[in-house]
Amino acid sequence: xxxxxxxxxxxxxxxxxxxxxxxxxxxxxxxxxxxxxxxxxxxxxxxxxxxxxxxxxxxxxxxxxxxxxxxxxxxxxxxxxxxxxxxxxxxxxxxxxxxxxxxxxxxxxxxxxxxxxxxxxxxxxxxxxxxxxxxxxxxxxxxxxxxxxxxxxxxxxxxxxxxxxxxxxxxxxx
Length: 174
Known about the structure:
single chain; 4-stranded mixed sheet; 14 strands
């Protein structure tokens, strides 16, 4: 759902306003017809497509305008992490991609919790390549929000980093 607002103005008032095309809940204040010099129409666009706003002033002059909308209710996707969580004998650089097919993504809207040096770089408006270094045992959680406000979370993923060498004790010789 996308919120939208239009101001329709004419010095002598507005007699007709109509909205056609995509589904919407638009309504005007003051109500039409009005002798007010302008009316503000607000509401929600509930589907992708083109909205046509047609209007006529009190003198009978008509005009219209078209507006295109993409209503995005789809969460971005976070690919499988590589390497997948588990037990490792050394620090791991974990990589993944984030994709959004409608509204697009910005690196600033990605939160990486856990590890060090986490960052995402832009591949294009709809894809990010991300990485973080897991140098100690801990959890990795990724939160992604697309430009339409849809969110998704991956994790927590537990990475166990064991860099301690095994020891031998109680060795006897004969």
